[in-house]
Amino acid sequence: ATSDENINIDYDRNIFNDFVKFLKKLDKRDKNEEGKTQKLGKRYKRVYEKWQNRISNMVIEATVELIKQAKEKGYNHLVLEDLELMSKLRSNNKEFDINNGRLIRLLNLSSIKNRIINIAHKHRVNISFVHPEYTSQTCNSCGYISRKNRKIQENFKCIKCNHSNNADINSACNIRDRLLLDVLRDKFLNINSFSEYKTKDLRKESIKFILEDYYRVA
Question: Collapsing DSSP states into helix, strand and coil, what is residue 138?
């Protein structure tokens, strides 16, 4: 979802569900004498590679559609969460009951980042990236950070100020603000020669402190 609510592109949940089932099937394989799961055999490896290609193609198709719609609405700059940094997240994906970081690594989304940049640049759209930490837990109205703000996957409701919104739109607004708000942009991002922004090397604790300090003053 985009911050202005004009664009909402979904993924194929059936494909994701089937992929997660396949991953869980792999997890149940017999372990060796050392207690470690054995390496993938040729058959499983072929199936796994097919799944990766299938998911990759789905993400690329969604990206092309996003950029196409953005261009039609007059946008020439998109701000996304940094997919490479997302692979470090340890929170659990409630919808699919799997660790987010593991899922992103298995989907190889970090390599898709460069493909997204290439697609955008071909359409003369700039791409900037922000830290993914706390984008889904932060209230875009008051800045309060808590996992309890998102008890249900689709809905966001702040336990401090009662602000409520679609969870994806709330996250999109937080992503947007990390670039548009001067203080957060200066703290979080570096600009390159193409007027695109990249994330600074910051620890998760530092990101939370900066956010809380900014909203406390604001």
Answer: strand
pLDDT digits (tens, 9 = 90+) for 173-186: 999 999 999 999 99
User: Hey, which residues does 138 pair with through a beta bridge?
Assistant: 145
Which tokens hold the place of 32? 């060796």
The distance between the two most distant Cα atoms of the chain, rounded to a whole number of Å, is 60
5: left (phi over 0), alpha (psi -120 to 50) or beta: left
Q: Which residue has the higher pLDDT, 37 or 52?
A: 52
- Angle among Cα 174, 11, 104 to the nearest 5 degrees reads 70
* 58 — pLDDT class (breaks 50, 70, 90): confident
Please check the confidence at residue 6 and state whether its pLDDT lies above 90: no
Cβ 199 vs Cβ 129: under 8 Å: yes
Q: How far apart are CA 4 and CA 120, in angstroms?
A: 20
Q: Taking a C-beta distance cutoff of 8 angstroms, is the pair 31, 38 a contact?
A: yes
- CB of 178 closer than 8 Å to CB of 197: no
DSSP code of 84? H
What are the strands, taking DSSP E only, across 109-186? 126-130, 155-157, 164-166
Residue 12 CB partners (closer than 8 Å, separation 6+): 58
CB atoms within 10 A of CB 74: 6
